[in-house]
Design brief:
- The complex is a heterodimer of chains A (440) and B (369).
- By secondary structure, chain A is mainly α.
- Chain A folds into two domains: 82 residues, no CATH class; 292 residues, no CATH class.
- Chain A has 15 helices and no strands.
- Chain A is globular and about 70 Å long.
- The termini of chain A are far apart.
- Chain B is α+β, with helices and mostly antiparallel strands.
- Chain B has a three-stranded antiparallel beta sheet. Chain B has a three-stranded antiparallel beta sheet with strand order 6-7-8.
- Chains A and B meet through helix 7, helix 10, helix 13, helix 14 and helix 15 of A and strand 1, helix 4, helix 5, helix 7 and helix 14 of B.
Chain lengths: 440, 369
């Protein structure tokens, strides 16, 4: 953020601000992004979701407040604020009050490491991805607090489900990201984005390819499997259909949120949609290149960067605008997929969810990790690391070999796992039936 | 050792998916259902007692309110009971119109029942919107004929209120043309969806002998594999003139009940087509004989039963020779189909309860009378 401001104010406009003023301005901007843009995204998301689902169901959706109902989320927010805040008599008042805060705070913090465009990351942590996932698991504590403190059986059931689901699905999510981290060799989110330049695959492995900003990981077998596994796990972590089990309204009313009203409920709602936005954003960043896209790299190269200190600062801003556009476009497309799934599917049962996570997704992501290791070995290792076969191969040939080998492994494992998984499900169903008939 | 405790959860009476004010006292061990006790009566409104204070005709609109999805079927059963009691003949054309209406009711009931069931599985309203789509067209037809969409109050002793309006038949034919594609679509919604199959197959099994011992009827009984249908077992009205099949399930789980409902919609469509063929030749007679409405049946009793979309619907009437029934009793299929709920749910997960309840297809207005 600082670099971009310096390029704009001192470079393009030539105002010659001192360093402290630039620092101050960049911090104000960062805080604005984290605390204002995040809730605004949530407001837009609720509106967007309601309109899309309405279209799926032959309805119009909210269209009364403002043009095409665009102010509906604001009206909802006003309603939330003016509702009475009810705390059940038997609830643990302090924990009941703290729970929404514990759920919201980490989701807002996660915005700190999300890059919006080239050079537009609030805090460029070298371990950004680790930070992201470490912080995101804190909200499970908040959910359990909410369920426990409400002293309601539905809340307790919902909280148990939420925690079980979040803890189990974090494993495949992280395992699928580790595959990418292995290829990039860095936990920094900026590094991961920077890696996805070029065309189809990074020009770090294959030099000489024009930079169209399309070297997304999803185009490789490793990245594709990781993307599918990660997105499924993200649905479970964000409590989206078909994994919205913790708040299954047809079974346990509203899960851990049952006893919350007014703005406390609003905070849970906020946390959920902000988390959904972040999960879509991180999917777009890790597997679809984040702000990468045709033109951004070229624009950015014309601007003021460490490699090119004499560039034009205006290009930094142009690259930023285009980058933010690409980034938000990708994120909204993923959110559309989430809404689409919500409009189409019923939800799984908690035991089926656990089965799927532990017996299918985790083995798949583990195999994918192996593929990622082979990818690194084929594309980068030489005789010193023991890859004697690849001696004398051209980079293109090495890249092709890596592609074919990982594709074969991932496809084989996927087919094998589907068969094993179907067999185990059938076996389980049979055993359950026997148990039932024995009990009867 | 860890101390574990079974949890008692009250699902209902105010709950999103109990289809009204119905309460289930569920004992759960973690997520597994150990025991379930259905508690009803929250919607009790003294239906039978009030009916005994009304004249026979005054009760006709009142039967609409029993199973408000199938007011035509309720009308039919009640009209048949009074006609038996008072010995009233029904002209042929009126019988055909009655069958037509009840079969349309069956289609709309099954479509929305399937939609509601998938909704209970957690789909966010979209299948319900699918289920309600054709229902609207059928309700339009009802409005044409009777003037009302839900509370039709269309049947009269010895006939129906008025003959079909001229625009009814063309509209019905148009509906019939669109119907097969719609039913196929609804079926694909379940058959092609892996999640739905996982949630439906092997869930809520009701063995045939248990179903029989509880006196279950309708699609729930046929889902358990017993081909019992009042339309075949004791043909009333003009049902003996139609050619249709009684679909049955194999296992008796949620999935079988779903398939039976889908197939019954197809069979209802077959019956309606045959009605349309035979209707022009049917002898007219006086469709709404006003003189017979103020009935004063002789002393005696009568029972009439029909295959309502939810099961066997019966009305038992005792007359003391006055203009009011001395005793009025409803055999409500929803109520009797609900009784084996505990047997169907035991051993399954909490999430299955609402699906099983949805697959029984109850309307609380009929359960608590």
């Amino acid at each position: 953020m600082y670099d971009m401001l310096a390029a704009l104010i001192n470079g393009a406009l030539g105002w010659g601000w001192p360093e402290w003023a630039l620092n101050l301005l960049s911090y104000i901007l960062i805080v604005t992004i984290v605390l204002v843009v995040a809730p605004l995204q949530m407001l837009f998301f609720t509106y967007y979701e309601r309109r899309v689902i309405a279209r799926m169901q032959d309805r119009v959706g909210p269209n009364r407040v403002g043009p095409e109902g665009i102010w509906q989320p604001i009206a909802d927010g006003v309603k939330m604020f003016t509702k009475e805040d009810i705390v059940p008599q038997a609830a643990d008042r302090i924990v009941h009050f703290l729970a929404p805060c514990v759920v919201v705070a980490p989701t807002v913090l996660m915005f700190a490491v999300v890059p919006w465009g080239p050079g537009m990351v609030p805090v460029d942590l070298p371990t950004g991805l680790l930070f992201f996932f470490a912080i995101s698991s804190i909200s499970a504590v908040g959910l359990m607090m909410a369920g426990w403190a409400s002293n309601n059986k539905f809340s307790l059931l919902g909280a148990m489900r939420a925690v079980a689901q979040m803890v189990s699905y974090e494993i495949p999510a992280v395992l699928s990201l580790i595959a990418i981290v292995m290829i990039v060799g860095s936990l920094s989110i900026n590094e991961i984005i920077a890696y996805q330049t070029g065309l189809i695959i990074s020009n770090r492995d294959l030099p000489g390819i024009p930079d169209l900003g399309l070297g997304w990981f999803v185009f490789t077998p490793v990245g594709f499997v990781a993307f599918i596994a990660f997105f499924i796990a993200a649905l479970a972590e964000g409590e989206r259909t078909p994994f919205d089990i913790p708040e299954a309204d047809s079974e346990i009313v509203a899960g851990y949120m049952t006893e919350y009203s007014g703005m406390k409920f609003g905070l849970f709602y906020l946390a959920q949609y902000v988390l959904n936005f972040l999960l879509c954003a991180i999917t777009a960043i890790i597997f679809f290149g984040g702000w990468q896209g045709p033109g951004v790299g070229w624009l950015y190269a014309q601007g003021i960067t460490p490699d090119n200190p004499n560039g034009n600062g205006l290009f930094n801003v142009l690259a930023g605008v285009l980058g933010v556009f690409y980034f938000l476009l990708k994120t909204y497309i993923f959110f559309f997929v989430m809404v689409w799934l919500r409009g189409a599917f019923p939800r799984l049962r908690i035991d089926q969810l656990m089965d799927f996570g532990w017996k299918f997704l985790i083995p798949l992501t583990l195999a994918n990790l192996f593929s990622a290791a082979l990818w690194v070995a084929f594309t980068r290792w030489g005789p010193a690391e023991g890859m004697l076969i690849t001696v004398g191969w051209s980079p293109v040939l090495r890249w092709l070999a890596a592609f074919v080998v990982t594709l074969a492994i991932n496809l084989g494992v996927y087919l094998w796992l589907t068969r094993v998984y179907a067999a185990s499900q059938a076996e389980r169903r049979r055993a359950e039936l026997e148990e039932l008939s024995a009990a009867a | 050792m860890l101390q574990t405790q079974e949890l008692q959860v009250n699902i209902g009476p105010q709950h999103p998916s109990t289809h009204g004010v119905f309460r289930m006292l569920v004992t759960v061990d973690g997520e597994t259902v150990v025991d379930l006790k259905p508690v009803f009566g929250y919607l009790h409104r003294n239906h039978e007692q009030i009916a005994e204070a009304n004249s026979y005709l005054q009760n006709m609109p009142y039967t609409d309110r029993l199973d408000y999805f199938n007011s035509m079927a309720n009308n039919h059963a009640y009209a048949m009971a009074v006609e038996r009691l008072a010995g009233i003949e029904v002209p042929e054309r009126a019988e055909y119109i009655r069958v037509l209406m009840v079969e349309l009711t069956r289609i709309l009931n099954h479509a929305s029942a399937v939609g509601f069931m998938i909704n209970d599985m957690g789909a966010w309203q979209t299948p319900l919107a699918f289920g309600m789509r054709e229902r609207e067209k059928i309700l339009d037809l009802f409005e044409m004929a009777s003037g009302a969409r839900l509370m039709c109050n269309y049947f009269r002793f010895g006939g129906v209120v008025r003959d079909l309006p001229p625009e009814f038949i063309p509209n019905l034919r148009e509906l019939l043309r669109a119907l097969p594609a719609y039913i196929d679509e609804l079926e694909r919604l379940l058959r092609d969806n892996e999640i739905l199959l996982q949630r439906a197959i092997g869930i809520g099994i009701l063995p045939p002998e248990v179903a029989l011992s509880y006196g279950v009827s309708g699609p729930v009984l046929r889902g358990s594999g017993i081909p019992y249908d009042v339309r075949k077992a004791e043909p009333y009205s003009v049902y003996d003139r139609f050619d249709f099949d009684v679909p049955v399930g194999k296992v008796g789980d949620v999935y079988d009940r779903f398939l039976v409902r889908i197939e019954e919609m197809r069979q209802s469509k077959r019956i309606i087509e045959q009605v349309l063929e035979q209707l022009p030749d049917a002898k007219g007679g006086h469709i709404n004989p006003k003189a017979r409405q103020n009935v004063r049946p002789p002393v005696g009793d009568a029972y009439a039963r029909i295959e309502s979309p939810k099961g066997e619907l019966g009305f038992y009437l005792v007359s003391d020779g006055s203009t009011r029934p001395y005793r009025y009793k409803v055999r409500a299929p929803s109520f009797i189909n609900l009784t084996p709920l505990a047997d169907m749910c035991r051993g399954y997960k909490v999430a299955d309860i609402v699906v099983i309840l949805g697959s029984i297809d109850i309307v609380m207005g009929e359960v608590d009378r």
